Automatic annotation (TrEMBL):
<dbReference type="Pfam" id="PF01055">
    <property type="entry name" value="Glyco_hydro_31_2nd"/>
</dbReference>
<dbReference type="InterPro" id="IPR030459">
    <property type="entry name" value="Glyco_hydro_31_CS"/>
</dbReference>
<dbReference type="GO" id="GO:0004553">
    <property type="term" value="F:hydrolase activity, hydrolyzing O-glycosyl compounds"/>
</dbReference>
<protein>
    <submittedName>
        <fullName>Glycoside hydrolase family 31 protein</fullName>
    </submittedName>
</protein>
<keyword id="KW-0378">Hydrolase</keyword>
<dbReference type="GO" id="GO:0005975">
    <property type="term" value="P:carbohydrate metabolic process"/>
</dbReference>
<keyword id="KW-0732">Signal</keyword>
<feature type="signal peptide">
    <location>
        <begin position="1"/>
        <end position="19"/>
    </location>
</feature>
<dbReference type="GO" id="GO:0030246">
    <property type="term" value="F:carbohydrate binding"/>
</dbReference>
<dbReference type="InterPro" id="IPR030458">
    <property type="entry name" value="Glyco_hydro_31_AS"/>
</dbReference>
<dbReference type="InterPro" id="IPR013780">
    <property type="entry name" value="Glyco_hydro_b"/>
</dbReference>
<feature type="domain" description="Glycoside hydrolase family 31 TIM barrel">
    <location>
        <begin position="320"/>
        <end position="737"/>
    </location>
</feature>
<keyword id="KW-0325">Glycoprotein</keyword>
<dbReference type="InterPro" id="IPR011013">
    <property type="entry name" value="Gal_mutarotase_sf_dom"/>
</dbReference>
<feature type="domain" description="Glycosyl hydrolase family 31 C-terminal">
    <location>
        <begin position="745"/>
        <end position="836"/>
    </location>
</feature>
<dbReference type="InterPro" id="IPR048395">
    <property type="entry name" value="Glyco_hydro_31_C"/>
</dbReference>
<dbReference type="InterPro" id="IPR000322">
    <property type="entry name" value="Glyco_hydro_31_TIM"/>
</dbReference>
Length: 961
């Protein structure tokens, strides 16, 4: 959450025009750009002292010539370690032999252990190298003739320079991109197949879509900056999280085959990652430019997209187990200003019969905006406690916000234990001179937790525990402002007059924006609030606006500089300390903020998750957080930040959900109906439907905007009831997908090409998605539409059936199919060959839904077969305890159910629906005749009712003939 006006006044944005210049540029005091040394003139390294071992090799790298000291000081001696981690994962680590450069500690991200067997001769990935000048490339043992999946031997590029290289260079071919390893600048590049498909490298919402722009002839397609930043969801700029992992999907038109691989550069350094394609070249390039750290690469061989994502998860940690109630519908807003509004809101949702699982509170809850407090007037402890107890009685839940900044006490009489205890226990970040670092957030001058400090876990756990004792008996926690966000730059509170600074006031802030094509007559506002100066928006011909990219910039400092690194990454705010912690701030253990900035959110998530394990003994924590980093998924879910009530942003939310499946943070979703500005009835109607088919489902909006709870409009209420009922019916399917994510790293939400990898028309589809392998979602994403175009993968080989009617889709095998989509309807389709375990009677809460009976939906393929499975447990135990695995298979007129495990399932399967079947003459269950069945010839649909199939039985058999 942020106040755009406040941050706009505090931020610095610089735009640089593109120019054919050196890849090392200097930003002069006048703001102009001048040439500097070309990095291609740096000497590179020579390999020596190579020693092979059972698991790989170790060698020394020595600077091969005169140091170029481009953006710091060249490091003379490096060490390279190559480890064949498994059959599918290769680890290449290049670091300074003296170990002076920052490396992510094992206590922060646990690495895979040393292999217990040798994979040097069997791994599908092979490490190759040239000793002088040193370069390496990674090939597949299974396809040695294919272009390497990573190749730093870039030595023969066309004569036309690649922006941003020097156009005055007279050579007809570049010497390539030598390895540059300095104390404040690292650079390495790899060749990629021309126009290949790259996904990941975020967090970002990209104008090019889910598939990253790799450029065309002579052009830079993407400059992705990794520097955590509190900003309201800009396009093509760095945002809250940093994920230096990409998935590459290669398609061979000649052989009609595909293969996928992945590359992780495990570094927390501020970085630019550049994707570009040289002029007249047959290759594309990826180039890493880092302002510190080491080169710590992991390569994943796939060869499928799903396997690449799973291999990444095995390296950095699989996602946390989600409690079943977390899949319910969540409701929040910044502006529930007292407990009475919470109570009224919950009652209104119940009266409208719109299921509400979790009620949230934003910073309105706090006293003077201080975390771990409640306002004694607006949220008195006894009333808040009674409210939460009533939610619990009704099997509902409560989640409050926790901001990262801890307000500093103003004087000796000011009592605020989270701050005073933190000072006593030495848990806060410091200035270089050892004094307390103070920034500025909602409560005023604020300190920031040092997640590296020895006492921080105990202090944070105590703060959360004390909060529950004050009546805030939360079920989960919402972590915000953890980039970390500060409303001023550098240590602005050090030595300041505390009495002169009061907490920020947001009273009177009014949102004035509306969605594109807003028509007050058709889709009026939800209330009678007067919006001064508001006008309706005309519908633009092109609503997708892109932000201008900055040029490749660099500072001019000759040596290490913690506050203004010599190479200026493309941080959207400009200076790296803008609106966040100063990069020279210090942490326990001798770390500095410049090195660890990108991990702040992840370390808070880990600390909070461990605290909740202590508070909720034996139960799974539930967390949603904003800033993320590799391994965050072990500790938290994520919402997509401060989006806008625009149709454009509803579309962009799909891109975000797909990205975070790659990042192993599958519990993800957007602020439904939009956060900033005002939504309207049509947009909220469509968005409530769309978000019901994403993992994390929360409606949330900003202070001063018109209310957007789904009961505010009759059509939105109706759409919400329909969509939530479908979501709750699918809960066993969602739950099984997330169990697979937590045990095997498989993504619950999938891009279409994951399942159909040799259909190039799917490679940039990001207006549709698959839930697992079996559910296809095609939402309306434009105002005024009553139809929607969608592609049905399989090119006619797959039978797709409508979720709502079970009718077979007459799909165009060669392109889009136009589908009817009246208001309050979202197109959802079932893939053939699938068997889904469903809740037969979706109820008001997840608890009540899980208490009801099951049903089975069988969608047969043309051969009359289908498969499915389900994971069932109690939905809350930590770590996951007893469970039951159900396997379903159908063929030759027979449905077999196999059940293994110790978890007892009291609910029975009462209905089985089979699609794609000819009318039978009879039905039996375990040899006994079943009378209660009906058949619909138009849909080839057999419905068998009044069953009582015992899911604890080792095997059950349902037959039709």
């Amino acid at each position: 959450m942020m106040l755009s006006a406040i941050l706009a006044g505090l931020s610095l944005t610089t735009t640089l025009a593109w120019a054919h210049t050196s890849s090392l540029l200097q930003r002069q005091s006048t703001g102009t750009i001048s040439h500097s040394m070309n990095v291609t003139n740096c000497p590179g390294y020579t390999l020596g002292s190579l020693a092979e071992n059972e698991y790989g090799l170790t060698a020394q790298l020595s600077l091969a010539g005169t140091p170029c000291n481009a953006f710091g000081t060249d490091i003379m001696d490096l060490t390279i370690e190559v480890t064949y981690q498994s059959q599918t994962t290769l680890h290449v680590k290049i670091y300074d032999t003296a170990n002076q450069q920052f490396t992510i500690p094992e206590l922060v991200i646990e690495r895979p252990p040393t292999p217990t067997e040798s994979f040097t001769g069997s791994s599908d990935l092979v490490f190759n190298y040239d000793p002088s000048p040193f370069a390496f490339w990674i090939t597949r043992r299974s396809d040695p003739e294919a272009m390497p999946i990573f190749d730093t031997r870039i030595t023969s590029l066309p004569s036309t320079p690649i922006p941003p290289f020097n156009t005055s260079d007279p050579r007809t071919a570049f010497d390539g991109f030598p390895l540059v390893f300095e104390d404040q600048y690292l650079q390495v590049a790899s060749a990629l197949p021309y126009g290949t498909n790259i996904y990941g490298l975020g967090e970002v919402i990209a104008s090019s879509g889910f598939r990253r722009d790799i450029g065309t002839d002579g052009g830079v397609g993407t400059i992705q900056t990794l520097w955590a930043r509190d900003v309201g969801d800009p396009i093509d700029q760095n945002m809250y999280g940093s994920h230096p992992i990409y998935l590459e999907h290669r398609f061979n038109e000649t052989t009609n085959t595909s293969s996928s691989s992945g590359v992780l550069l495990l570094s927390s350094a501020g970085s630019d990652i550049v994707l570009q394609t040289p002029d007249n070249s047959k290759v594309s390039l990826i180039e890493y430019r880092m302002i510190g750290g080491i080169l710590d690469f992991y390569f994943f061989s796939g060869p499928t997209d799903m396997e690449v994502i799973a291999q990444y998860g095995a390296t950095i940690g699989y996602p946390m187990w989600q409690p079943a109630w977390g899949f319910g519908f969540h409701l929040c807003r910044w502006g529930y200003v007292n407990i009475s509004e919470d109570i009224a809101n919950v009652a209104a949702m119940r009266a409208a019969n719109i299921p509400l699982e979790v009620q949230w509170n934003d910073i309105d809850l706090y006293h003077a905006f201080r975390g771990f407090t409640t306002d004694p007037v607006r949220f008195p402890g006894e009333e808040l406690q009674q409210f939460i107890e009533q939610l619990t009685t009704n099997h509902q839940h409560y989640i409050p916000i926790v901001d990262a900044g801890i307000g500093a006490t103003l004087n000796a009489t000011d009592v605020y234990y989270p701050f005073s205890d933190g000072v006593t226990m030495d848990t806060f970040i410091k200035n270089p001179d050892g004094s307390l670092y103070l920034g500025q957030v909602w409560p005023g001058y604020s300190a920031f937790p040092d997640w590296f400090a020895e006492n921080t876990q105990a202090w944070w756990t105590e703060a959360l525990t004390n909060w529950t004792e004050l009546g805030v008996n939360f079920s989960g926690i919402w972590l915000d402002m953890n980039e970390a966000s500060s409303f001023c730059s550098y240590s602005c509170g050090t030595g300041a007059n505390f009495s002169a600074l009061k907490p920020f006031s947001v009273i009177g802030a009014v949102a004035t924006g509306y969605p594109e094509c807003y028509n007050e007559t058709l889709w009026g506002p939800s209330g009678n609030m007067t919006i001064n100066g508001t006008s309706t928006n005309s519908c633009p011909s092109e609503t997708m606006e892109t932000l201008k990219k900055r040029g490749i910039g660099a500072g001019g400092e000759p040596s290490v500089n913690l506050t203004s690194p010599p190479y200026a990454i493309h941080n959207g705010y400009g200076a790296v300390s803008t609106n966040t912690l100063a990069t020279n701030a210090t942490h326990y253990g001798g770390y500095v903020e410049l090195d660890v900035h990108n991990m702040f959110g992840m370390m808070e998530e880990m600390t909070t998750h461990l605290a909740l394990q202590t508070i909720f003994q034996g139960k799974r924590p539930f967390l949603i957080s904003r800033s993320t980093f590799p391994s965050s998924g072990k500790w938290t879910g994520h919402w997509l930040g401060d989006n806008y009530s625009k149709w454009q942003y509803m579309y962009l939310s799909i891109q975000g959900v797909l990205q975070f499946q790659i990042y192993q943070i599958p519990m993800v979703g957007a602020d439904t109906c939009g956060f900033n500005d005002n939504t309207d009835e049509e947009l909220c109607n469509r968005w409530m439907q769309l978000a019901a088919f994403t993992p994390f489902y929360r409606n949330h909006n900003t202070y001063g905007a018109l209310p957007q709870e789904p009961y505010r409009w009759d059509s939105v209420a109706n759409a919400s009831r329909i969509a939530i009922a479908a979501r709750y019916s699918m809960l066993p399917y969602w739950y099984t997908l997330f169990a697979n994510a937590s045990t095997n790293g498989l993504p619950p939400v999938r891009a279409l090409f994951y399942e159909f990898p040799i259909e190039p028309e799917l490679f940039n589809v990001d207006r549709q998605w698959l839930i697992g392998s079996d559910i296809l979602v095609t939402p309306v994403l434009t105002p005024g539409a009553t139809t929607v175009d969608g592609i049905f993968p399989g090119r006619g080989t797959v039978v797709w059936r409508d979720w709502w009617t079970h009718a077979v889709v007459d799909a165009n095998p060669d392109g889009n199919t136009t589908l009817s989509a009246p208001i309050s309807h979202i197109n959802v389709h079932i893939r053939d060959s699938s068997i889904l375990l469903l809740h037969q009677e979706p109820a008001y809460t997840i608890y009540e839904t899980r208490e009801g009976p099951y049903s089975l939906l069988v969608s047969l393929n043309k051969a009359g077969t289908a498969l499915g499975n389900a994971y069932v447990d109690d939905g809350e135990s930590y770590p996951p305890g007893t469970n039951r695995i159900l396997n379903f298979s159908a063929s030759n007129g027979e449905l077999d159910i196999e059940s293994t495990g110790e978890y007892p399932i009291p609910q029975k399967v009462e209905t089985v629906t089979i699609l794609g079947v000819q009318q039978p003459t009879g039905v039996t269950l375990n040899g006994d005749t079943i009378e209660g069945w009906t058949y619909d010839g138009a849909n080839e649909e057999l419905i068998i009712s009044n069953l009582s199939i015992e899911l604890n039985a080792a095997e059950s058999k349902l037959c039709w003939e």
